[in-house]
Each structure stands twice: as structure tokens, then as C-alpha cells.
Amino acid sequence: MQDLRTTKYPRMNRIIILLLVVFTTVLSSCYYDAADLLYPSAGTCDTATNVSYNQTIVPLFQQQCYSCHNNTSTGGGVLMGSYTNDKTIAVNGKLYGSVTHASGYSAMPKGMAKLNNCQLSAIKKWIDAGAPNN
Questions:
Q1: In terms of domain of life, where is this protein from (predicted)?
Q2: What's the Rg (C-alpha) of the chain?
């Protein structure tokens, strides 16, 4: 004897399955992704206050510059890693020309993305203040 579910109501089974698939698809597409959780900000850019060599510039240079420009590896003949050396390239224009990828300068950091606007702004503000050791 044939099963009544498949012979008497085959169309009904297809409709129920189709409705379940549609319902599941709609329900799963309603998932909400919080953009602030998916793409956390890198922090705020605070260059409105005084930019400090020790608190702002040195950590930036440690992250972006010192691995190639140090006592054991003077990339491009540029030595960094001390206030005196860092100030020298800041005052002579080499630093800002390189990190902004200005014409006539070797783009830095070499082989990496250009520094973001906040980092460039901090460097510029430090240089414009006379590159103080603060």
C-alpha cells in the first residue's frame, strides 16, 4: 500500500519544504553585523595637543623606522634611533619628504604602506615645533 503522504499530497510537501527554505533564508539574512565590532578604529587621532617626542614620535619610529635605520642597519645611509639622529633628519627635511612620498625623496617606509594621515600630522607638528626633545 502506498503512503498517503507522498501520493495524496505531493504538492503540499513541496510547498512546505519551499516555505521552510525561504523562511530559513530570510531569517539567516537578518543577521546584524555591528560595524564597530567588525572594523575597530585604530584609535582617535589627537594631534591638537602638543606632540611629544618620547610619547608620540619614538613609538611611531619604533614601529615604522628603527628596524631598518639603526646602528647595525643604516638603510639608505640614514641612522635613526636617538634623539640627535632623529632631529637631524627631521630638521633637514629628509624625514617629512620621505614619509609623505614627496618627489625627490625615497618613499618610506620602504616596501610598506604610506603612513596614515594621523601619523603624518603628528610628525609634521613635531617638526614644525622645532623637533623638541620632550
A1: Bacteria
A2: 30
Instruction: Delimit the domains of the chain by residue range.
Output: 4-38, 53-128
Total length of the chain:
134
Is the four-CA dihedral 51, 54, 57, 60 of positive or negative sign?
negative
Task: Determine contact, residues 69/78, Cβ cutoff 8 Å.
Answer: yes
pLDDT in tens, 17-64: 888 888 887 767 665 555 555 555 556 777 667 799 999 999 999 999
How far, CA to CA in Å, does 109 sit from each of 32, 58, 130? 38, 15, 23
Residue with cell 530559513: 24
Residue at grid coordinates 603612513: 115
DSSP assignment string, 65-82: TTTTBSSS-BGGG---SS
115's grid cell: 603612513
Sign of the torsion angle spanned by Cα atoms 61, 99, 36, 44: positive
Whether this model's pTM surpasses 0.85:
no
